[in-house]
Amino acid sequence: MTRTILFLLGALALLLPAPLAAQGFGAGPAHIQASLEAETMRPAPGGETTFAFVMKPDAGWHGYWKNGGDAGLGMDIDWSLPTGVSVGELAYPVPKTLVIAGLMNHVYEAPYALTVPLKVSRAIAPGTMIAIEARARWLACTDKVCVPESGTFTLRLRAGDGTIDPASRARFDGFRAQLPQPLGSPASYTIDGADIRFAIPLPAAIAAADPHLFVATIDAVEAGAPQRFARDGDRLIVATRAAPNLTPGTRVDALIRLAGSRGLSFSAAPGDVPPIAEGFDIGLLLAALGAAVLGGLILNIMPCVFPILSLKALSLARAGGDERRARHEALAYAGGVILVCLALGGLLIALRAGGENLGWAFQLQDRRIVFILLLLVVAITANLAGLFELPGFGGGEALAGRGGTRGAFWTGALAAFVATPCTGPFMGLALGATLVLPAAAALAIFGGLGLGLALPFLVIGYVPALRNRLPRPGPWMERFRRWMALPMGLTALALLWLFWKQGGSALLAFAAMAGLFLVAALWKAGRDQQRGISAGRALAPALLVGLVALIALVRIAPHIAATQSAADADTPYSADAIAALRASGTPAFVYFTADWCVTCKANEAATIDREGVRQAFRDNDVAVLVGDWTDGDPALTRALAQFERNSVPLYLWYPRGRGEAEILPQVLTPSMLIERARAR
Questions:
Q1: How far is residue 246's CA from residue 254's CA, in Å, rounded to a whole number?
Q2: Which of 19, 132, 348, 618 maximizes the CB count within 10 A of its CB?
Q3: DSSP letters of 424-450?
Q4: Residue 46 · residue 159 · CB < 8 Å
Q5: For residues 630 and 364, what is the distance between their CA atoms, to the nearest angstrom?
Q6: Helices and strands in the chain, H and E counts
Q7: Domains of the chain from N-terminus onward
Q8: 504-536 confidence digits (pLDDT tens)
């Protein structure tokens, strides 16, 4: 019923005369503001220029692709053109999917532009006025209502030399960048019962991080049907459900979205397409799962995780010979670690399915999340230093740093959350596999990562011989607890440094002041606790300080510009920059990094920024390009996905000449780079 109503409204809009200005059907302004722009107002006779319908949906509204899906309509235009002037087909950018009431929609929720080429005949004399009129109709919808809208647009051009203003060129280049690129090689499809399979020529080296097939040909496929993807060498196979009334032999026009707004358009003719094997590559899953467990195990010795693990070490030592308590705490700790890894992995998969360009540790690209983590680390530092005592949970046990299954669970959850910026050996394979495996298998990879991180404490909890080697409880535990405030405090300083890199001195000053106020409030809470005031009353002012600081950050963060975090001597990575170096045959070293990536910073300090390495680069004319992923730049996310990665670090070496990129190990050595720089 919903689909029928939408199509009736759309058909009614196409029959109504267009008003003189863009507006909604009936009274009131349009919900998608539309304007018509020309790349040049002086098109050259015998040449071609580009027009663009610039569409700006109101918040909560969306427009449609040429084939709106189960419910929706694209734009319809009636042109009024002078003799000697013609227009081509309307070009749409890569859309997004939106499911409403079980119906699949192909939509644009953010501002977008529809471009159209305009040709001017050589017979038109220079200086001739060219009057263009377009009567356009489109559909604007929310998740509850659709409104047919329309408008009449006029432009007065004058035949000239075709000069394009640089600002206009840049603006239209931006519009063209959102369009799918035409796939030069032919595609094919075959109908197999109720299903249809497409074979799209796509080199195996091209990653499809978030694929979706949008079919432009009406009544070719069922838009809301599930889509399955598989590789067949240099072909991407897509299987879905064919529309019941698809005419055999029909040429099908479509586009394949690879990731975000990146897509390839193609036309498919009937042909032989191999079936997709059911299931997935079990070998890839097992290899990735093993790499995830090993990667999580290695995370236990990474600097970003060790301060949190010290809390669990205290708890295990306090358990002593109580085997039942030790096992319960080990299981609770593992549960906290694995559940957080699964939650983060599930959120990452869901956001990528919604079109976001994100990778592992995506939450630390949000200043608000980093700020919450900073306040938490400051509070734990103050607790370890003895400024205050944490309130009890379940039998008087503390949230973290004390005994009890609840304390163990939250300690594990915190350890997993803090571990996310770390990427150690074996994790590149594991996290890269989540891009191509089904959602359930990808979640298993994230669960394996959590299992590896929790494995040492599971072993200690269930192997008495190992647990008995731990030191016995005693006065040393309180001294050890005080010392552990030092690495935790260093973690807080590292987060402050990340704030500075993300937002400059203004954000650093704000975070530092918030941390100082929180420490003061916690010190006051500790004094109140010593006088017998309940923990809840004593800590209320500290919680209020943290809440006020978080609200203030939410308000000021959008107005604070990020600072450049790449080394001044290195060139920021871009596809154009690397293409220019390849064209000239210049050797290049490319490294993708982030301020919150400990492995990245260790490699930079120990290898990349060593004077011997830099001198070898200078002596041999090696270009150095850096991709700073601290704030989750979508362009860099797509660049990582091209090499089947969704995390940093990633190191690439382009040899002298025009050879293909070599992916270097995640742990670099100076000799590794120096030898490649000197190679001829």
A1: 15
A2: 348
A3: -TTHHHHHHHTTTS-HHHHHHHHHHHH
A4: no
A5: 8
A6: 17, 26
A7: 2-159 (2.60.40.1250), 187-270 (2.60.40), 282-559 (no CATH), 571-678 (3.40.30.10)
A8: 666 777 777 877 877 877 777 777 767 777 656
Q: Which of 429, 408, 432, 426 is nearest to 339 (CA)?
A: 408
- Whether 522 and 538 have beta carbons less than 8 Å apart is answered as no
- The DSSP element (H or E) to which 137 belongs, if any, is strand 129-141
With H, G, I as helix, E, B as strand and everything else as coil, classify residue 679: coil
DSSP conformation class of 6: H
Show the tokens assigned to 247.
Answer: 């005419």
- pLDDT of 553: 64
Q: What integer pLDDT is reported at residue 204 of this predicted model?
A: 64
Q: What is the rounded CA–CA span in Å between residue 654 and residue 664? A: 11
What's the token pair of residue 314?
Answer: 């205290």
Please write the tens of the pLDDT for every residue from 268-298.
Answer: 999 999 887 655 567 667 777 887 788 778 7
Model pLDDT for residues 101-126, shown as the tens digit of each residue: 888 999 999 999 999 999 999 999 99
Q: What is the dihedral of CA 400, 404, 406, 412, to 10 degrees?
A: 50
Structure tokens given for 306: 């060790």
At residue 8 the predicted structure's pLDDT band, cuts being 50, 70 and 90, is very low
568 pLDDT higher than 60: no
- Length of the chain measured in residues: 680
Question: If you ran DSSP here, which 8-state letter would residue 203 be given?
Answer: -
Q: Strand 571-572 to strand 623-628: parallel, antiparallel, or no bridges (unpaired)?
A: parallel
Are the C-beta atoms of 131 and 72 separated by less than 8 Å? no
Nearest residue to 3 via CA among 68, 60, 95: 68
Least confident residue range of 5-19, 62-76, 500-514: 5-19
Residue with tokens 């081509």: 88
SS3 214: strand
Cα 600 from Cα 596, distance rounded (Å) = 8
pLDDT tens figures, 377-420: 787 778 777 777 655 333 333 444 444 677 778 777 877 776 65
Q: What region does 580 belong to: left with phi over 0, alpha with psi -120 to 50, or beta?
A: alpha
Cα separation of 628 and 108, whole Å? 29
Residue 179 · residue 91 · CB < 8 Å: yes
Q: 542 with 518: CB under 8 angstroms?
A: yes
H or E, element range at 76 = strand 76-80
pLDDT confidence of residue 397 = 35
Question: What is the distance, to the nearest Å, from the Cα of residue 366 to the centroid of all Cα atoms in its chain?
Answer: 12
d(CA 337, CA 345): 12
Model pLDDT, residue 664: 93
Task: Give the separation between CA 436 and CA 283, rounded to whole angstroms.
Answer: 13
What is the DSSP secondary structure assignment for residue 179, as one 8-state letter?
A: S
Nearby residues of 6 by Cβ (< 8 Å), 6 or more positions away: 71, 72, 73, 139, 141, 146
Q: Which residues are within 8 A (CB) of 475 and not within 5 positions of it... i.e. 6 or more apart?
A: none
The better pLDDT of the pair 384, 661 is held by 661
The one-letter amino acid at 113: A
Half-sphere exposure of 50 (CA within 13 A, CB side): 19
Which residues, in sequence order, are CB contacts of 11 under 8 Å at separation 6+? Answer: none
Report, as an integer, the average pLDDT of 466-472: 65
Contact yes or no for 594/628 (Cβ under 8 A): yes
